[in-house]
Amino acid sequence: MNPQDIRSIHARRVWDSRGRPTVEAEITLDDGAVGRAIAPAGASKGTREAHELRDGTPRFGGLDVMQAVGHVNGEIGRALSGASARDQAALDRRLIELDGTPNKTRLGANATLAVSMAAAHAVAASLRVPLHEYIGGAEATLMPMPQIQIFGGGAHAGRRVDIQDFMVVCPGARNFAEALEWTAEVYRHAGLVMQERGPLRGVADEGGWWPDFATNEQALETLVEAIERAGYAPGAQVAIALDIAASEFGRAGRYTLGLESRELDSDGLIEVLLRWIDRYPIVSIEDPLAEDDAEGFARFTRAAGQRIQIVGDDFLVSDATLVREAAARGAANTVLLKPNQRGTLSETRDAWLAAQEVGYAGIVSARSGETEDTTIVHLAVGWGAGQLKVGSFTRGERMAKWNEALRVEERLGARARFAGTTAFGRSRR
Ligand code: 2PG
Ligand code: MG
Q1: Residue 429: per-residue pLDDT
Q2: Ligand 1: does its nearest atom lie under 6 Å from the Cβ of 18?
Q3: I want to staple 50 with a disulfide (CB 3.0 to 4.6 A). Which of 109, 236, 302, 401 is the partner?
Q4: Ligand 1 centroid, distance to 80 Cα (angstroms)
Q5: What DSSP string describes 58-79?
Q6: Does the Cβ of 153 fall within 6 Å of ligand 1?
Q7: What's the 212 CA to ligand 1 centre distance in angstroms?
Q8: Is 367 close to ligand 1, i.e. is its CB under 6 Å away?
Q9: What ligand 1 atom has the least distance to the C-alpha of 245?
């Protein structure tokens, strides 16, 4: 018997921030240590993501996860019982083999990810160290730059505006805690500006203000105004990061901006984005083009990749092979890392390792459907990714992550280093 061998695995159905079912796994080790983790769920998903297994029965609009829960309590539990949780790579390999499909279609990435993450939590508990330290060792002391949403949009706001995330980062902040303080002020002032213009219409899926705008660009203007009114210098102290999530309104090189009743080709969309970069203090753009538009991605990266960070989310789906392919064609310079796009911690980490090999930056990211689970905070610190995207600055499932990061920074004390914008992606050519 080894203290970190798996004694038992149990899954249950719990509920996410959208009131939808999701999978929680709980692993007990032979020494009695327990680890627990919950799978998140996306709304704007890449087609090459690992498969999220939903029952498809009439219950909860087909979204129930009792099959995935059953897989953990049955097949996965039997296969991993007695295995060492200490060897994350071997455990994840076992999950992949057991599933046997290229994309976790049989067991479900929601089942495998919950187990993969719960195992890491259990070992950290057994070793009595925080998860980030178990993952990255004592030298993993880099606190990430937070990317925080001020206005939601796209699939997270009934497509009220086309662009999905209007976010801020704080290049001028001295540490993580200060970046949160500044963002809190910007968020509050953005609310005040919206209120002056008309009734506040609440918040979008990830907690950003509801985007009651006449054009996409008006959101950018309002964001700059909020930064200024909060007392910060746009660009130098607080800058803008966007997730265009272009796969949601574009395919085969055609893009439809519904709000502005405009149809554009790739170059037309690139032109719009380049104008925005000239006009507004934008330092990062995610999924500027659709997942099927690698050529557009490469053209945009040639045009702007030395000035700003260009992030592949739907485009790269946290996949090491796709990261290498993108690098070979000069498309994007940064990968978004979402563990449930792959379904195990090891595969997600592989994408980050591939990114480092090819000179790409990395951003660990939540999904729009989240819970109180804070694993991603520990991944960001443990992997030294340097950036963390969690959604906005309201709603418990978002604040759980920001607050956990504050605890980590406090615990690291004088050893904590703040990534600032040093970890941002920039193309080298
Ligand atoms: C994204 C995420 C988070 P979703 O596109 O980056 O904002 O959204 O989880 O819906 O894919
Ligand atoms: Mg995205």
Answers
A1: 65
A2: no
A3: 109
A4: 31
A5: TGGGGT--HHHHHHIIIIIHHH
A6: no
A7: 20
A8: yes
A9: 5
User: Mean pLDDT throughout 273-298?
Assistant: 98
Domain endpoint, select from 128, 153, 168: 128
Domain hosting residue 32, numbered range: 6-128
In this predicted structure, the answer to whether residue 418 has a pLDDT above a threshold of 90 is yes
- How far is residue 123 from each of residues 85, 93, 141, 239, measured CA to CA in Å? 7, 17, 20, 38
Residue with CA closest to ligand 1 atom 4: 42
Query: Ligand 1: does its nearest atom lie under 6 Å from the Cβ of 121?
Result: no
At CA 301, angle to CA 299 and CA 304, rounded to 5? Answer: 110
Would you report the helix, strand and coil content of the chain in percent, each value rounded to 5?
Answer: 40, 20, 40
pLDDT at 428 over 90: no
pLDDT band at 127 (very low <50, low <70, confident <90, very high): very high
Q: What is the pTM of this model?
A: 0.98
* Cα(264) to centroid(ligand 2), Å: 20
Let me know whether 410 and 363 are in one domain.
yes
Residues annotated as catalytic (active site), given as ranges = 206, 338
Distance CA 138, CA 328 (A): 34
Residue 398, ligand 1, Cβ within 6 A: no
Mean pLDDT of the chain, nearest integer: 97
